[in-house]
Design a protein that fits this description.
Ferritin, globular, 9 helices, single chain, 2 domains, mainly alpha
Length: about 350
């Protein structure tokens, strides 16, 4: 009897495996650069550990593509990293960047798991997720130990259970109505947005000052300004509830203008972070009950969407956007034309 292990991979599985290959080959290139520059032994161990796991995952993905007779994606190679150039970021930023990468990976591969039906691919995504969770835990512990990232704010512990009893609880849009203080669920999502965009602002700064392509450099500059705008907007929201916005002393760009990464890879990383931002905004909106918050998040999502669209156009213009596998074009086939 045929088992699931011998079934051909579905279109959904092929798409997620393709995304996994693009993602992991990119991560390996960033990690290679960070490992070369690492000075703290513990930080280097964390970077090397995740690099080795990503390398194993890529080998597994290569075998699946080969076994299925599918062409191997180009992804990102050693050509996308220039060794030996000066530091683009300070030594804490490597772990901050890896923490954000693993945060994205935890969510991404959990979603991919929900799209997998073949037994071996489900197990593969379980391993991807577990390895990302372990690295996230290591990077978080390291950064907290060195006071490189602040913890989220505290509130007074609740003594009673309360239920919303009138429409005032959802008030926020009307400028003349009372805005209730943020609840802890809203604080959590706002804090995640602020932390991610603070790191993203630094990442875009380094990309902008080292990019070789003028169009790409403009995108990175716009990305820095967009992240700055988002940080300002949601920091103000926290302050209105007498809550301090996060502030980081570490994780800054240096004054180097030598590009350690290819413009293609920096653009792809920007695309990944834009997608993460849109997803975070959607989740934040779904769990925000004060009426002004979904509106602010929607405005932010629109700005991110426009930025992502502009980024995509630059990638297409420069031949950097690798197409995912696609369905057969039956219209062309019925006319005797090639799919390509």
């Amino acid at each position: 009897m045929t088992t699931s292990d011998h079934l051909s991979i579905s279109a959904a599985e092929l798409g997620t495996l393709w995304m996994g290959y693009e993602n992991k080959t990119m991560n390996m290139r960033f990690l290679e650069y960070y490992i070369e520059k690492a000075e703290n032994p513990e930080a280097k161990d964390i970077l090397e550990s995740y690099y080795n796991k990503e390398s194993e995952h890529v080998e597994t993905l290569i075998k699946i593509f080969q076994d299925e007779g599918a062409v191997l994606p180009v992804g990102f190679t050693e050509k996308d990293v220039t060794p030996g150039v000066p530091r683009l970021y300070d030594e804490m930023f490597d772990i901050m960047h890896l923490r954000l990468i693993t945060s994205i990976n935890m969510g991404l591969f959990t979603i991919h798991l929900s799209m997998a039906y073949r037994d071996d691919i489900r197990k593969l995504y379980q391993r991807f997720t577990a390895d990302a969770q372990e690295a996230f835990d290591q990077t978080t512990g390291f950064l907290l130990k060195h006071s490189a990232i602040p913890r989220p704010p505290y509130v007074t512990m609740p003594k009673d259970v309360e239920f919303a009893r009138d429409k005032q609880y959802m008030s926020g849009f009307n400028l003349f109505s009372h805005k209730r203080p943020l609840n802890t669920v809203e604080i959590a999502h706002l804090y995640l947005t602020l932390e991610a965009n603070t790191i993203g602002m630094t990442l875009m700064t380094g990309f902008a000052q080292s990019a070789q392509n003028k169009d790409a450099a403009k995108i990175f500059f716009d990305g820095k300004e967009l992240a700055k705008q988002i940080v300002t907007t949601f920091s103000d929201v926290l302050r209105q509830s007498d809550i301090h916005a996060p502030s980081m002393w570490a994780g800054t760009a240096t004054d180097s203008t030598n590009a350690p990464f290819s413009d293609k890879m920096m653009m792809y990383q920007t695309s990944v972070f834009s997608s993460f931002g849109l997803t975070s905004n959607a989740i934040g909106s779904a769990f925000s009950l004060r009426s002004d918050l979904p509106l602010k998040l929607a405005k932010s999502a629109q700005d991110i969407f426009t930025f992502a669209k502009n980024s995509g156009q630059v990638m297409v213009k420069n031949g950097w956007l690798e197409e995912p596998p696609q369905a057969d074009d039956r219209t062309k086939l019925t006319k005797g034309q090639s799919n390509k």
